[in-house]
Structure formats: C-alpha cells, structure tokens
C-alpha cells in the first residue's frame, strides 16, 4: 500500500519506519535524514544527464530517459527494499518527482 504523508505525519511515524532515500548519492551526501538508507534510482551521472535532457529536450524525453536508466535496476531495488521491510515498514523519500 502506498500512502502520501504530510511532514507532521512523517515525524510521527519516523521512529517506527525504515526511511529509504531514493535520491542520487550526491543529493544524499549533501543532506539526508539521519539513519536513512540510500537506494538511489539514478547514479550521479544519470541524474545530471536527466537534468540536462529536461532542460534542453523537455520533460517527456527526460522521463523516458529516466525510465530507461531505472527499469533494468528494478529487481535490485525491490530486493534491497524487501530486506529492509522484513523488520519495519518503509517510508520512501525523494525530491521533486523522483
């Protein structure tokens, strides 16, 4: 089940959840919630390429590029999340539309 939560609700749930931050490693390193796990959807290079594509070729092309980067990694993402979900529910954190 997927549920969007407000910041206040997030703060209430924080102690009982594993927080998974799906932002790129550089974004995670810049600032992240303590004790969160980084399972990035994109590498730093892929994130930069998607950003450039968005700016120069448009949103639709950037979305397709992002999907092409992420789709082959879905089994790995799911396995990592499955391991974390054995003990606690998961809260996913992303920036923008990630």
Automatic annotation (TrEMBL):
SUPFAM superfamilies: Rhodanese/Cell cycle control phosphatase. InterPro entries: Rhodanese-like_dom, Rhodanese-like_dom_sf, SelU. GO terms for biological process: tRNA wobble uridine modification. Residues 13-98 form the Rhodanese domain. Gene3D superfamilies: Rhodanese-like domain. GO terms for molecular function: tRNA 2-selenouridine synthase activity. It holds the Pfam family Rhodanese. This is Rhodanese domain-containing protein. It comes from Oceanispirochaeta crateris.
């Amino acid at each position: 089940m997927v549920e969007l939560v407000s910041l206040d609700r997030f703060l209430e749930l924080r102690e009982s959840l594993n927080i998974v931050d799906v932002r790129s490693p550089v974004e995670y390193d810049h600032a992240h919630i303590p004790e969160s796990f980084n399972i990035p959807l994109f590498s730093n290079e892929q994130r930069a390429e998607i950003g450039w594509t968005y700016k120069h070729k448009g949103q639709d092309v950037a979305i397709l590029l992002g999907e092409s980067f992420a789709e082959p990694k879905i089994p790995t993402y799911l396995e990592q999340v499955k391991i974390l979900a054995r003990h606690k529910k998961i809260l996913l954190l992303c920036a923008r539309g990630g």
